[in-house]
Amino acid sequence: xxxxxxxxxxxxxxxxxxxxxxxxxxxxxxxxxxxxxxxxxxxxxxxxxxxxxxxxxxxxxxxxxxxxxxxxxxxxxxxxxxxxxxxxxxxxxxxxxxxxxxxxxxxxxxxxxxxxxxxxxxxxxxxxxxxxxxxxxxxxxxxxxx
Length: 146
What we know:
two-stranded parallel sheet, alpha/beta
């Protein structure tokens, strides 16, 4: 999409491997746009830290209702929070999911890196349980219909 550099924060070994697979850099700081996908308070705080003064944090994660957003840190740096447009199309923007599908179609080798587990629908409870623990080598879990 025209970014001069793409960096990916990684905590677990499988995430480091995926970062290398896609050719992304290790994050430093001072980014115009930071896309937060972790869905935790710590991830939000780190996103603000990585953004430049006047930058933007796009949040894709799902957050608990009691999540403390780092508004003081964002205010000091004049960082703007923007929600994802993944679930809707507004104002001429394309849906994130459509762009992700096009990317995966163009680079099918990424699918096996990103979809790490598959479950039949009968095992959906176990799939969701596993999906919560990223330390077990999980990126995305797919629940497939019978």
